[in-house]
Structure formats: C-alpha cells, structure tokens
C-alpha cells in the first residue's frame, strides 16, 4: 500500500517532470520556430498538442503542474523546506508563492488545450481580468508582480551560488550544477519580464492583455537578438535540469498525520 508520503513524493516528481517538458519545449521552440514562439504560451501548448500522444502529455502536465504549484504553496504556508521566518526566509517563501501562482496559470492553460476548450485567450490573462474587475484588484495584481521580482532575485542567486545543489541527491550527474546554474539565471530573466507585466497591469492600469506567462515572456524578448538566444538556451538547459530533479530532488517526507515535517536537506 502506498502511504501518504510516497504519494506526495510522486506528485512532486510528476510536477518536476511536467515542468521539464514545459521548459524544454519553450527552449526548443524559441530556438527553432519564430512563428510558434510569437504565439507565446498558446504556441507552446499547441506544439505539445501536436506531439505523438500529445493530449496524454498535456493531461500529465495538467496534474503535474497543479501538483508542483501545491508543493510550492506549501513553502509560504508551512515552510516545508525550512527557509525560516526572518526577512530572508520570507523572501524565498514569497518567491515560491509567486512561482506557485504562475504554474497554476500554466496548469489551467494546459487543461484548456487538453479538453479542446482553448478559445485563444490565455489562462493568466483571463485570471488577471477577473481580479482586476474587483475592488483593489489592481493592487493584488501589482503585488503579485512584486513577488515575481523577489522570485527572480532568488532564482538568480541560486544560479550564481549553486545553493540548489543542497537539495539534490549526490547521485545526480556531475553536470547538474552547470546546467542548473545556467537554467536558473535564464529563469530569472523570464520572471522579471512576467513581474513587470503584472506590475504594469496592476499599478499602471495597462490592462490584463499584457500579463505574461513563460511563453509570452519569451515572445516579448524575441527582438533582443543574442540575449533572446542565450535566454532560450538557458531555458532549454533548465528543462533538462528539471528532468534530473524529477529523479534526484530530495523531497520532504509527509508525516503520518498528512503534514510535512521540518525539511532537512541531505
């Protein structure tokens, strides 16, 4: 019988696998298909839909990205990775919350493609429009943008310091540090673009149409020449790195009470 801890671990690993597929496809499309990347996130999921067994892959991504988002939400709520409650710790935990929200939006977009309900609108834009339609919604969206700036800072710091290796099994391949570092730096660039789009929509009243997720962020960088290419290569490496995480990431154990006890990196 599979206990709660093993179920939790498998859910998180499927999440990392789904993230791996997403970033690998983003990187490949950015490097090989200008037309598809110009479609933003929709183009990414259309490309996956065209794969052999594409619909099945999309369904795996729906559950995987949703599971990964829940895992990231556990950081601000329960501090499952023992980041702490000081200013530095809360900065990391808030960054994880921003990542969780972004991956929920991606899970929703994948769901729409998996069920053939995509109408051309992006999940993130639709969600942002709903929030902007309520009182103080602009403030909420703007603050969410700030969380992405915090997340971008943390991603860049991970890439430079290699601190992410503390939560990866020593059995991981020797090149994990190199591709992970490059991937985190590229991801930081994308998070800055996403954060700026949210700040613009929330604090500057530019509208929900400009809100971006990963594919849209890359599309907005398409005219930046060598920097676009470097970022695309970095995201491709981050996808490969995420495949390694799906196998070698140290996942916090889920206790018998169904909660996650304090995490200790191995």
Automatic annotation (TrEMBL):
UniProtKB keywords: Membrane, Transmembrane, Transmembrane helix
Q: Give all residue intervals belonging to the DUF1206 domain.
A: 14-74, 94-161, 182-249
Q: Which residues cross the membrane?
A: 20-39, 51-71, 127-153, 184-205, 225-246
InterPro entries in the record, alphabetically? DUF1206
User: Which Pfam families is this protein grouped with?
Assistant: DUF1206 (PF06724)
- Give the protein's recorded name: DUF1206 domain-containing protein
Q: Which organism is it from?
A: Alteriqipengyuania abyssalis
């Amino acid at each position: 019988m599979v206990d709660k801890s093993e179920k939790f671990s498998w859910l998180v690993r499927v999440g990392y696998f789904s993230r791996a597929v997403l970033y690998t496809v983003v990187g490949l499309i950015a490097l090989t298909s200008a037309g598809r990347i110009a479609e933003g996130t929709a183009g990414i999921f259309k490309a996956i839909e065209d794969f052999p067994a594409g619909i099945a892959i999309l369904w795996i991504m729906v559950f995987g990205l949703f599971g990964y988002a829940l895992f990231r939400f556990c950081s601000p709520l329960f501090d499952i990775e023992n980041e702490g409650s000081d200013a530095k710790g809360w900065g990391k935990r808030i960054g994880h919350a921003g990542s969780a929200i972004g991956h929920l939006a991606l899970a929703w977009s994948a769901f729409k493609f998996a069920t053939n309900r995509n109408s051309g609108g992006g999940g993130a834009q639709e969600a942002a429009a709903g929030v902007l339609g309520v009182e103080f919604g602009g403030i909420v969206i703007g603050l969410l943008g700030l969380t992405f700036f915090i997340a971008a800072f943390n991603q860049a710091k991970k890439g430079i310091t290699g601190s992410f290796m503390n939560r990866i099994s020593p059995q991981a391949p020797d090149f994990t540090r190199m591709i992970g570092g490059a991937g985190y730096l590229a991801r930081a660039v994308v998070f800055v673009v996403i954060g700026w789009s949210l700040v613009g929509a929330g604090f500057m009243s530019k509208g929900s149409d400009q809100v971006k997720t990963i594919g849209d962020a890359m599309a907005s960088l398409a005219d930046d020449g060598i920097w676009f290419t470097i970022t695309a290569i970095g995201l491709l490496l981050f996808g490969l790195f995420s495949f390694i995480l799906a196998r070698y990431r140290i996942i916090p154990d889920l206790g018998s009470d169904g909660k996650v006890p304090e995490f200790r990196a191995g």
